[in-house]
Amino acid sequence: MSGGTGISKEHFAAVSRLVYEGPDSHNALSFRHYDAEHCVEGKPMRDHLRFAACYWHTMRNGLADPFGAPTAETPWDDGSERVDNALRRLEAFFEFLSKCQIGRWCFHDRDLAPAGATIKESERNLDEVVRHAAQLQKSHGVELLWGTANLFSHPRYMHGAATGPSIDSFLHACAQVRKALEVTRELGGSGYVLWGGREGYTTLLNTDMAREREQLARFLHMVADHARTIGFTGALMIEPKPHEPTTHQYDSDAEATLNFLREFGLLGVYSLNIETNHATLAGHSMEQELAIASAANALGSIDANMGTPGLGWDTDRFPTDIYLTTQVMLAVLDRGGFSNGGLNFDAKRRRESYQAADLFHAHAAGMDAFALGLRIAARIRADGRIDSFRRTRYDSWSTALGKKILEGATTLAQCALEAQKCHDKPPSSGRQEMLEAIINDLIAKELRAR
Ligand code: XLS
Ligand code: NI
Ligand code: NI
């Protein structure tokens, strides 16, 4: 390994590079379904799935919970907030990415490098670590999916960052995002994400919501302008979430976020990064959030994880449910695949899965589940039964009258007259159970074929 600490040490010596061994393999540290080169719908799985690992959960999450100490074994990390420790941690991460066949990554500014006593010092620290990251990206053939700034951990953001009542938090947020955006561009990131963890409120007794939304909109306009100024051509994305840590977040779900963007002239400037566990916290399915984003041509990227049914927290489990991964990949294929986006495992191991090897088990489980989901989704599309049922349901709209209505060429009174000519045919059946059985049939066929 070049540069940085100058030490070339293997941090995961017990793990060798995971390879595709096929569905019959009992080797837990291999892929049973993810075969990077294998083509699905004429494109290698690698390019469909565009897997990324996130730096925060992978390298910076000690797996503590509100009742217990961290458990994660991290022999490469001396626990200090020093730059040399940050560089070593980064080397361990890139070794992990290579061994796990993950070609992309995501970070927050503060995960990467220690904050300094001043903005200048924080930026110097970040620059040093980013220089090393650029070398490691090159030597390991890894790309940056997206970067972001942590505008939620520091106490100065307790009342909000861009939406804070004090202009100080707003200005600090500007400083952090300016720098994070610039290093994202330096590292060739295909996107930049804003997640408003503290952009919301806990009680309206102390909050002027209309004003806070205006502040957020101004902030987002300035971020977009700066991106243009520095020549950042990647996707700018907002990541909706309804609550946690804030009681009510302004970007609560895809629909609310799109409305916000529309209201403030930002639609088309920002797209959405949709996360499964955030969808379920908002009371929606991931399918629905993806469909809403796609319909507005605003599906940017995906934070791939899943929640725990019945638990109202962002438990960020690795996505191992193949019904879920099938739905996600169906949505992705139906919109023509990712352009700047990808599948970022914004996921953490359970506190009990504390050994370094569990990082590999966890990501491999998620990658295999998505590979299987991709294969099944392609099968559903090739089969065509679901799509043709859905299309046929709207057949009566392809009549001359249907077209006229949709073109805006009819009045309510004309339609009321037309109603008199309707023969009150019984409506067709929705056949939901039949359709669900078709999906199960195609899952079974794919599993048999594997
Ligand atoms: C938190 C979010 C966060 C964003 C990046 O729930 O998922 O991890 O992805 O700030
Ligand atoms: Ni996320
Ligand atoms: Ni999350």
Provide a descriptive summary of the structure in words.
There is one protein chain. The protein has 2 domains: 39-383, Divalent-metal-dependent TIM barrel enzymes (TIM Barrel), CATH 3.20.20; 386-449, no CATH class. The chain is globular. The chain contains 16 helices and 12 strands. The mean pLDDT is 97. An 8-stranded parallel barrel has the order 3-4-5-6-8-10-11-12, surrounded by 4 helices. The chain has a two-stranded antiparallel sheet with strand order 1-2. Strands 7-9 form a two-stranded antiparallel sheet. It has 450 residues and is of the alpha/beta class. Bound molecules: D-xylose (XLS) and nickel (II) ion (2 copies). One nickel (II) ion (NI) binds at residues 239, 275, 303, 346.
